[in-house]
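User: Could you check the structure of this?
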Amino acid sequence: MPPQPKKVRGENGPGCWAMRPVDGDPNMCLFQWLLDTDLKGWIPQSIIDKALSGAQFDYIAHIRTRAATLITAEGLNDSIASCVDILGEDGT
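Assistant: Sure, the predicted structure tokens are below.
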């Protein structure tokens, strides 16, 4: 698609998440996130980078909150693939 007047075309480059266990601490992992985004337009890339890094920190905070809800008195609830812990036993 050719450039359009008054439109900004952003690009996402390669990206990935990598999670590795931390030696000696079974309750922690090293989380690495590669994010390559160029929104183009008039916003300086340094401002975009700061905003995106803030969004990444927010996302990780939500992951930590979610992980904490999966820990029960019996240990880790590994039913992440199901929605029972979100919706309840009856699915509502």
